[in-house]
Specification:
Strand content: 5-15%
CATH topology of the largest domain: Rossmann fold
Radius of gyration: 21 Å
Strand order of the largest sheet: 2-1-3-4
CATH class of the largest domain: Alpha Beta
Structural class: alpha/beta
Number of helices: 22
Shape: globular
Largest sheet: 4 strands, parallel
Helix content: 40-55%
Length: about 400
């Protein structure tokens, strides 16, 4: 693809990066076949190729409009197109840059700005989100059905193991997961304890930064990254083996800390080290001897929902499925497993109609094999799927616990 970037962006490093990505696109259209929004809407502008042209026009100086922003907003950033693309176009990064620019070129309405501001103030903060969930549960009987279904029930985590092993790994607590599925990390700690690994949490670590990053609040996202690096660094100096991620969305973000902070002289090297130590839980367990779990799933049928951040973002398709199979579970066939469930972080709140259509389609494929349980690798997907299903939805590590 040939480009002619507007002189306005001459010294913009992000735009220079976007230009390189644009030039790698060969307009083949393979991406349209695996794009969830294109499959539903049938519009070229709601496909990766169409959005690439919109971003190209934006960077070449054409007028930024609300319509341009609408089509970029509708993108799930599921990266399914990246898995399909024969040219290796880094579409996820490109659309992120495009969104950062459109926010400045075509400002949102006051109401939309306030909604996004509230979300950015509440969702990444464990304390504020906790208060919001408490308030929501108090008024739950009076809420509309769709909103009521989104509100997770209060859950208690089972105890963490108290034994201490020579092998130690950090775990990211995060922001949403501890409040909505607190047993996930506890289950991971108990499974790893049986394998002779202690899982520990850094008290001062918080949100990974993904929510801010994907809502064009890049500076706050970077500050959250720095805060986590500062919280983890003493443990790294003390020899921890890995930083375990039990939410694949957070895992993808942390694996990109090195890229995001590459121009920060104080944190670039540390961020690269953090990214290299970050491992999805499936990457840890696939290299361990799981013989003691070999029959734990005997007689149980599982429909596994492969989260986009794990299969397309981290390129770990098949890792969890292999672990569950080796632990005795029968995996049901799930058609179109490459397609997004519609959770996509804040997408459920910002694009509710499309999100619900994708949820309906995904649940139809997951439930078709009449599983006993639906398993996922990401908290956002887990909550979204449970909001529309009567079948229990759990993090896959709970099935090994």
């Amino acid at each position: 693809m040939q480009t002619s970037i507007d002189p306005e962006f001459k010294h913009n490093e992000e735009v220079a990066e976007a230009d390189d990505i644009l030039r790698s696109c060969v307009h083949c259209g393979f991406c349209t076949a695996t794009c969830p929004t294109y499959q539903i809407l049938g519009s070229e502008l709601d496909s990766p190729r169409g959005r690439i042209y919109l971003i190209k026009d934006l960077l070449e100086g054409k007028q930024a409009t609300d319509k341009t922003r609408l089509h970029l907003d509708r993108c799930l950033t599921c990266r399914s197109c990246e898995t399909t693309c024969p040219s290796g176009v880094r579409y996820g990064r490109l659309v992120e840059i495009g969104r950062n620019i459109i926010e400045k070129k075509a400002p949102r309405s006051f109401a939309h700005k306030m909604l996004r501001k509230v979300m950015l103030e509440v969702l990444p903060s464990r304390q504020r989100l906790g208060l919001a969930l408490k308030a929501g549960r108090l008024v739950k009987p009076f809420l509309p059905t769709q909103l009521k279904n989104k509100l997770p029930e209060k859950k208690q985590a089972q105890p963490w193991p108290i034994s201490q092993h020579q092998r130690r790994m950090l775990v990211l607590e995060g922001c949403v997961q501890p409040l909505t599925a607190p047993n996930t990390n506890a289950a991971a700690a108990r499974v790893l304890d049986k394998l002779g690994i202690s899982l520990i949490s850094a008290e001062k670590a918080g949100c990974c930064g993904a929510i801010n990053q994907h809502m064009s609040d890049a500076e706050t996202a970077k500050q959250r990254m720095r805060n986590n690096i500062d919280a983890w660094w003493p443990y790294i100096e003390d020899g921890i083996e890995a930083i375990v991620m039990t939410a694949s969305g957070c895992g993808l973000m942390v694996k990109e800390y090195g890229q995001e902070l590459k121009n920060d002289p104080a944190y670039a090297d540390k961020a690269t080290r953090i990214s290299s130590l970050s491992k999805d839980l499936s990457e840890i367990l696939r290299d361990e001897d799981l013989i003691q779990f070999a029959t734990i799933g005997k007689g149980s049928k599982v429909a596994y929902q492969s989260s986009c951040t794990l299969q397309h973002g981290q390129k770990l398709s098949g890792a969890v499925e292999t672990i569950l199979h080796n632990c005795g579970y029968t995996l049901t066939e799930v058609a179109d497993s490459h397609l997004c469930c519609g959770a996509a972080g804040t997408y459920t709140l910002l694009q509710p109609k499309l999100s619900q259509q994708l949820l309906h389609n995904k649940l139809a494929t997951l439930e078709s094999g009449q599983p006993d349980v639906i398993a996922s690798a990401n908290i956002g997907c887990q909550m979204h799927l449970q909001s529309g299903s009567k079948i229990p939805v759990k993090h896959w590590i709970e099935l090994l616990d």
